[in-house]
């Protein structure tokens, strides 16, 4: 059995990473978590489940050479003192530190990358930190075939460095929707069509397109409401757009909630116009409650498991508003059809992303001598 460290900047819960930690712990590995942030929520959960969770806080601005150097020194000492055998590092701030430290510790280090082209879109791929990370990386785990292809073809990262493993979830960690709360939500947002969007309110997630979908449907005299879950820098802009379009009775910006599944279980469609996904969590959550989802072709791993009109709706990103509006208009009364779509999505999610169907790939890494 190995001493396995999960290194990250996590603060809130991370269901997929928690699922792996718990799965490794159950088979006898000693699992430890180290966060660069306070880890208020996730550390409590992990400690309660037998996994030692620590945080290392560097005061001041969370950037700059001095900041990362102090993390690097602490991380190296931490790995030696706790005799770490394997490191799974998650997200860029931790990956930069781990990429350098792997040459100064005895542990095998896997950098876990959760994005595809976010570096290009937000232009942080030009930074020295980003370039050093992927130059020094020995092994990189990506969560979609699309990410693997992009890294090889667009970033010039050698294929031998990259390992594709789907996100893995112990879906029991989510619990079941509370039927009482579901009914309350449906009553509060009573309408013929209840839509939901779940995303960060940022430009490449395109939450403004969900407003346009509602506008289209309202023009067709459809009794429609949209619940927008999420926070981000576009909040005020979106709120103003809702008011300017006179859609205050149709669109409700609820913000961040802890009971996403309750809201999803109350809805009729998840609409997800995002251009920025590697392996979208929201669509997997929709699958748990058998909620039909409308997504963009060619984004993240949707092409790997979304089959149009079979287990979801896959549309052209350039014509999302018109295509999504048409799908909803033509299908919102076809309850049996939508129920079948949701059931099929549920099965696809379980087949591809349930921890029991993915963890064996990590077992091979954990027992490897290389």
How would you portray this structure in words?
By secondary structure, the chain is an alpha/beta fold. It folds into 2 domains: 3-170 and 354-367, Rossmann fold (3-Layer(aba) Sandwich), CATH 3.40.50; 176-352, Glycogen Phosphorylase B (Rossmann fold, 3-Layer(aba) Sandwich). It contains 16 helices and 13 strands. It has helices at residues 15-26, 40-48, 65-81, 92-101, 118-122, 128-136, 145-153, 179-188, 208-219, 235-244, 260-266, 281-288, 302-305, 320-331, 335-353, 355-367; strands spanning 3-8, 30-35, 52-55, 86-90, 108-113, 140-142, 162-164, 193-198, 224-229, 251-255, 269-271, 293-296, 313-315. The strands form 2 sheets. It has a 7-stranded parallel beta sheet, with helices on both faces. Helix 13 links the parallel strand 12 (293-296) and strand 13. Helix 3 crosses helix 4 and helix 12 (281-288) crosses helix 15. The longest helix has 19 residues, at 335-353. It is globular and about 65 Å long.
Brief descriptors of the model:
Rossmann fold, 13 strands, single chain, six-stranded parallel beta sheet, 370 residues, alpha/beta, globular, seven-stranded parallel beta sheet, 16 helices, 2 domains
Task: Present the secondary structure layout.
Layout: E1 3-8, H1 15-26, E2 30-35, H2 40-48, E3 52-55, H3 65-81, E4 86-90, H4 92-101, E5 108-113, H5 118-122, H6 128-136, E6 140-142, H7 145-153, E7 162-164, H8 179-188, E8 193-198, H9 208-219, E9 224-229, H10 235-244, E10 251-255, H11 260-266, E11 269-271, H12 281-288, E12 293-296, H13 302-305, E13 313-315, H14 320-331, H15 335-353, H16 355-367
Helix pairs in contact: 3-4, 4-6, 8-11, 9-14, 12-15, 15-16
């Amino acid at each position: 059995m190995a001493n396995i460290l999960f290194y990250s900047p996590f603060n809130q819960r991370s269901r997929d990473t928690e699922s792996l930690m718990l799965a490794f712990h159950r088979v006898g590995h000693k699992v430890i978590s180290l966060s660069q942030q306070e880890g208020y929520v996730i550390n409590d959960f992990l400690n309660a489940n037998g996994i030692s969770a620590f945080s290392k806080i560097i005061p001041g601005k969370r950037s700059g050479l001095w900041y990362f150097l102090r993390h690097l020194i602490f991380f190296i000492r931490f790995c030696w003192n706790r005799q770490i055998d394997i490191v799974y590092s998650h997200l860029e701030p931790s990956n930069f530190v781990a990429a350098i430290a792997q040459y100064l510790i005895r542990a095998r280090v896997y950098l876990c990358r959760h994005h595809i082209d976010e570096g290009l879109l937000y232009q942080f791929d030009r930074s020295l930190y980003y370039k050093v990370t992927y130059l020094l990386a020995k092994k990189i785990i990506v969560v979609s075939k699309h990410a693997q292809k992009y890294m090889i073809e667009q970033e010039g990262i050698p294929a031998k460095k990259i390992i594709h493993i789907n996100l893995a979830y112990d879906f029991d960690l989510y619990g079941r929707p509370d039927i009482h709360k579901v009914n309350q939500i449906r009553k509060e947002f009573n309408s013929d069509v209840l839509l939901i969007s779940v995303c960060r309110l940022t430009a490449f997630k395109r939450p403004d397109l969900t407003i346009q979908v509602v506008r289209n449907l309202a023009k067709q005299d459809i009794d429609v409401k949209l619940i927008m879950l999420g926070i981000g820098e576009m909040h005020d802009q979106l709120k103003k757009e809702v008011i300017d379009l006179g859609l205050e009775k149709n669109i409700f910006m609820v913000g961040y909630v802890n009971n996403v599944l309750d809201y999803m279980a109350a809805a009729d469609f998840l609409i997800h116009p995002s251009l920025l996904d590697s392996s979208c969590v929201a669509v997997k959550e929709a699958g748990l409650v058998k909620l039909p989802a409308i997504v963009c072709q060619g984004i993240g791993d949707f092409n790997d498991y979304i089959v149009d009109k079979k287990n979801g709706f896959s549309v052209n990103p350039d014509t999302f508003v018109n295509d999504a509006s048409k799908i909803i208009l033509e299908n919102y009364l076809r309850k049996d059809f939508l129920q079948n779509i949701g059931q099929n999505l549920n099965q696809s999610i379980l087949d591809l992303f349930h921890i029991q169907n993915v963890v064996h790939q990590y077992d091979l890494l954990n027992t490897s001598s290389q």
